[in-house]
Fold this protein.
Amino acid sequence: MGRSESHGTGKASLPPGQRLQRGWPVTHYGPVPKFRPQRWEFRVFGATADGDEHCWSHEEFSALPYETVTGDFHCVTKFSMIGAEWGGVRARTVVALAPPAAEATHVMVWAEYGFSSNLRLADFTDGQVVFATHRGGELLTAEHGFPVRLVVPHLYAWKGPKWVRGIEYMTADRRGFWEERGYHNIGDPWREQRYSYQEEPGDGPEP
Ligand SMILES: Nc1nc2c(c(=O)[nH]1)N[C@H]1C(S)=C(S)[C@@H](COP(=O)(O)O)O[C@H]1N2
Ligand SMILES: [Mo]
């Protein structure tokens, strides 16, 4: 049994092709940004319900409701972390406070240096999706995305940008950073959606 034991969800504990990793490796493209609290803001823009942009300073963002969720973490390079506890602001909370227009279908999550990742609105508002500030009760380190990184447990981990600075509601799908560079537009690890060549009609934006 062991790893292939099911959790009662009917799912094996690890998605196909993944292996458990001890510790928590650091994986990203480019340098680790320096956090400047005075200049930091979290922007919600694009197709918002009221047409306005919403902006939170670091102090304001830190005062949003803090919740913890348990969520796995699957990197497309095949390491997985199981059952991590993440603390922060649920994506649902952000959506409730700064809602999208009725026409919005997707979200682009924006991070420092123009890094981005696109998500379907339904994936973004999944209950386990969190703008994490903590893991296991401890503040994130700079390498892991301090002050805020997104965690999307049901998709591959590149769908969770580190050093997030805001979200853009979109009325059509558009590829983010890794999605433009050969990675799957949806990125469901249970369906092993690793690369863009595996996409089926409807998985990605119109070419
Ligand atoms: N800003 C930014 N966020 C990013 C990435 C990146 O290149 N830049 N890489 C992603 C990938 S591929 C993975 S697996 C996870 C790794 O997070 P970790 O370094 O905290 O393990 O971050 C994701 N978030
Ligand atoms: Mo990754």
